[in-house]
Amino acid sequence: MTIAGSIAPWFWLLQDPGVLMSPALFLQLSFANQIATAWASDLLISASVFFIFAAIVLQTRYANGEAGVMFDEDCVFNLL
Predict the structure, then answer these.
(1) Closest of 48, 43, 66, 68 to residue 78, by C-alpha
(2) pLDDT in tens, 8-67
(3) Which of 36, 31, 80 has the alpha carbon at shortest distance from 56?
(4) How far is CA 42 from CA 9, 47, 50, 78, in A?
(5) Close Cβ partners of 13 (under 8 Å, ≥ 6 residues apart)
(6) How far is CA 65 from the centre of its chain?
(7) What integer pLDDT is reported at residue 52 of this predicted model?
(8) 6-21 residue pLDDT tens
(9) CB 41 within 8 A of CB 22
(10) Which of 43, 44, 70 minimizes the C-alpha distance to 57?
(11) Is the dihedral of CA 65, 71, 73, 75 positive or negative?
């Protein structure tokens, strides 16, 4: 599912490569109708939450002196 979710958007994005070269046109087409707006809004919210969570985890690890630890199975539970 992860692989399909990573590859499928590129199928649609590569239909018109010119859109990828123009950020203004990309944003205009991303919010072209209500369905596209719903998808784009969901993506922006999900990405924002992910980056906020990642920043919290990194700050916690640096504060605890665990900056060199790449993965710890208890990392999520240590935040709670």
Answers:
(1) 66
(2) 877 877 888 887 788 888 888 888 888 888 888 898 899 999 999 988 888 887 777 766
(3) 80
(4) 14, 8, 12, 28
(5) 19, 20
(6) 27
(7) 92
(8) 788 778 778 888 877 8
(9) no
(10) 70
(11) positive
